[in-house]
Amino acid sequence: MNLAPNKKDIGDYFVTWGWLIILFIGLSYVVWYWPISAIDSIKDYEQINFFFESYGLNDNTLQSDLLADLQEKGVVEVNLYDYAPTDVSLTSYYDEFGVASDFIVLTESGLDSMFNNASSTGVTSKFVPFSIDLRTATMPTDDYEYYKVGNIAYGLKIFDSSDSSYDEAHPFGRLLEFASTGIVADSYYLLLNSATPNFKPFDADSVTSNAVEALRYFLAKYR
Amino acid sequence: MEIILISLEEIKILKKKRKGLLVFFFGTFLVLAVFGLFAYLFQNRSTQMIWIVCGTFLTSLWLIVIAYVFLKMLSPLQHYLKFSKTALSGSRQINSVRVDSLGAENETFDGFKTKFLEGKEVDKLTLMHYRYEASADLKLKAGRIYEIEAFDGVVLRVKEKT
Question: Which chain B residue lies closest to A25 (C-alpha atoms)?
Fold first, then answer.
């Protein structure tokens, strides 16, 4: 029995099984694309994300400057998500981007409702507190005010709606637009998300200290 | 002149060919697996598209070749091997036949390709229809008389009668 391939058999094979060959090519692409893309996808510990509630970004250099600063530490992506406090889809955006962001900027009224009955909801476990050690590690001068639950500081004030001298000393207004015409002004706080793995050693589950470095950079940039 | 198409020796040769095809299958699979391991070890974000393109090309090529090997080589070989074993263990028919014509077209019989052979049985003049494995080089001449041994209409052995 002669099994050597010949032109006719090969031609017949391609005509009869053409659909299978196309399927093979598609399948091969999926088999290679899917795992390699998964391996090379940007991991949580390689990115720093900011979720802002504000009326707009005034500074578009934070993203590139912070990335340049942290690239040596393995950070490959910095993302800024900014949505107006009055946006009707704000909750959806928060669920999509906020819960996975290292830094979250929320309004004081938002925090009041969030931390209402904090002891029963366990919401405090979702944020890394501004402990004395964390402050020492990230701030040359700790002249900030904090949003406290009990005696623990969970939010760092970045805008005071009723104290312009505080805002002049801490000019985060260079980055974010905190007021909008026709809207009652509110104060804003920065919170640290414990769900991300970047707050080592201030969060037990973290694997990198990239967000701590980012916080140091962020606070120094807007002084 | 005697031509043997199916015999114990032929079965041995068929088994050897089957083993060769399986070795080819596992060998090429191993090569592809090693390539996959290299891709896993050496790929990175800047070279990932090169690995994906090369991997897709090699995997597609392998699947196409292996499908050909299974469909066009291993499957008919398996069927012919099975038929050969059955033929050698069953009762065969031996006739003296004056060959009229050898068919040129292939027709699949029991999973393998065959060609037709037609002739008339000597003395009785009964019209005889045979098949033989398509790649066999019988070189029979029309008008001559041959002793044909067959099973289920498939030729196992042909011997020219003087």
Answer: B60
CA–CA distance, A21 with A32 (Å, rounded to integer): 17
Contact A36 B52 (CB under 8 A): yes
Helices marked H in A17-117: 18-40, 62-70, 90-96, 108-114
Cβ pair A1:B63 closer than 8 A? no
State how many domains chain A has: 2
pLDDT tens, position by position, A157-170:
999 999 999 999 99
CATH value of B93-160 in 2.40.50, 3.90.25, 3.30.70, 3.40.91: 2.40.50
DSSP B74: I
B39-74 pLDDT per residue, tens:
999 999 999 999 999 999 999 999 999 999 999 999
Determine the pLDDT at residue B161.
Answer: 83
Counting one residue from A and one from B, how many pairs have CB atoms under 8 Å apart? 69
Q: What is this structure's pTM? A: 0.78
Has residue A189 been placed in a domain? yes
Q: Does residue A34 belong to the interface with chain B, where contact is any CB pair within 8 Å?
A: no
Whether residue B76 lies within 8 A of chain A, CB to CB, comes out as yes
Tokens read off for A204: 């037990």
The answer to whether the peptide bond before residue A197 is cis (omega within 30 degrees of 0) is no
Asked if B59 is an interface residue toward chain A (Cβ–Cβ < 8 A), one would say yes
Do A17 and A113 lie in one domain? The reply is: no
Check pLDDT > 90 for residue B124: no
Q: How far is CA A84 from CA A52, A107, A187, B15, B128, in A?
A: 8, 10, 14, 75, 92
pLDDT at B88 exceeding the cut of 90: yes
B52 part of contact set with chain A, CB < 8 Å: yes
- Residue B142 DSSP class: T
ipTM of the complex: 0.84
Range of the domain at A161: 44-221
Shortest distance between the Cα of B123 and any Cα of chain A, in A, equals: 33
